[in-house]
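**Backbone shape codes:**
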Amino acid sequence: MVRVLPYGSWPSPITAGSLVAGAVGLAEVVVDGRDVWWAEGRPEEGGRTVVVRRSPDGTVADMVPSGVDVRTGVHEYGGGAWWVANGVLIHSDRSHERLVRRTPDGDSVLLTPKPAAPRTLRYADGRTTPDGRWYVCVRETHPTDLAAGEPTNELVAVATDGSMRTDVVATGADFVAWPRVSPDGTRLAWVQWNHPDLPWDNTELWVADLAADDEGCTLSSARCVAAGGESFFQPEWRSDGELHVVTDRGGWWHVHRVDPHTGSLEALTGGEAEIATPQWVFGLSRYAFVGEDLWFARREGGVDRLAVQRPDGTVDDVAVPSGDGPATSLGSLAAHGDGIIAVAAGWTTEPAVVAIDPSGVRTLRAPRDLGLDPAWFPRPEPVVFPTTGGEVAHAVIHPPTNPNHEGPAGERPPLLVLVHGGPTSSVRTQMQLAIAYWTSRGFAVADVDYRGSTGYGREYRHRLHGGWGILDVEDCVAVARHLTDTDRVDPDRLAIRGGSAGGFTVLAALTFHDVFTAGASRYGIGDLAALAADTHKFEARYLDRLVGRWPEDEAIYRERSPIHHVDQLSTPLLLLQGSEDAVVPPAQAHAMAGALRDRGVPFALIEFPDEGHGFRKAANVVQALEAELAFFADRFGFEPADDLPALAVEGGSP
């Protein structure tokens, strides 16, 4: 029997602890012979990443010792910290950032020298040469004197014999990525770019002749193959030596065949869909060659779909079931037999490692068993809504969903607007317990792909140029008004939450608009000028595109920074921050808290001393989410069914 209770007060088996209990993040599938390898992020093990191997007989084993964290700090966001070939694993160890080689019998050898200062030499995105002698990868060298300037990014070849030899093979660009060795070992392709661009802006595709033997590893005849004001993603050599790459030169990210001699590119896929995703991390893969067939994932209509292009150009969609519906999120594609291995998830299932071939779909690594009926998970609704300037924006609406409870007649649910980070990113198109946590308690959730998000073409992605802090904020306000105007949510109980760049949007929405009645900012940006002056190399010039040139456009930075307009802020706010954050330094949260304190606006600040940019450790994930529920419950006047820790709010109760 369904029981009537006020929205927000519904009891739910989806606790904050269940978000991390047994939770595993799956990524970076690599097929090595008959073995399938992947990476697992484990919050319950301190947030470390573990490399796992599945043998043909189904045996699954961790391939690094207990306590080893396979991560890298290149670009601060990492990814691509390992590779395996012929059973030999090469990986970065987060504790010291040096490369380690591990053989099938368990022996390990350090491959890179000890840096002059801890973690000042970092490595990512590597591939071994066909003979296994060299590991060609990105190296990021940080100066030991912080006043000496920004890190240097280069392509290097690391000897795999333990001699500590490292040869620089490509240098000069501000950033390099995707070093890919041809199947015969005679050529190398890579992507590079310079400030103020980021990898989703304007990049260059390069190819060079590669000589790698006992005498060393060198490049010759290096040439820029293409650089037409476009974003390149995932260059790959087919087994016959033909080069391919994803580029958005036609307005959407699609796979192209490359002629390295003439620089001509031939589009193989097309339409209003995107194969690439923004390269915030290394180790991404969205297509794979299976013989002469091209298997690819594409974002279309707000979700991922899988397809195969045959040699004659015909394209067949591939159905990938996930739970009680189709897979809506696909990634980490790798060729395997006459099909692929991928990480797949749906609206009612968390990610799984699956094998997909003409015979069907097999699960190699199942998602955790939540012990919950699918009726607890919301069925999302993609919406296109009107926003400012006569334009439209996108969002995914997750309605309140609880099989045992419903709200009183005439009452509308509170709304939580979620703002993704980046800002060049997108909403996650899969089941998220972090969203079901709210919907199962009676919240409606709007996950917003504001202008500037990815998945809708280059024009929409770049629409935020010059408009960050304006257009993204207007879109979040617009979706809240759209849902109140259609009588779907309570206009007096509108909350907004975001992290990093999304946290900036939260702060700006609360400061410059009078729509939301509560907010939560996770490691958000309050002072754009401070971010421009004090952030890491990868994003050092990001704001040149999004806001304006620094310091020439200082007035714009000040105008859009919430910290300078706190006199306009009267909405209660929860601030969550990691003390070790190198992307958005803790000083930003402290400054915002100080201004709120002086202003007398109710707020709470929780700082996690053992976290960086994003919360990885289980206890901190739980504390942050429970603090948000306690804060919103106090603000919106409902009694949660949960037994929540007390939250100290300064400036009086909201």
In short: Residues 171 and 478 are 46 Å apart (CA to CA).
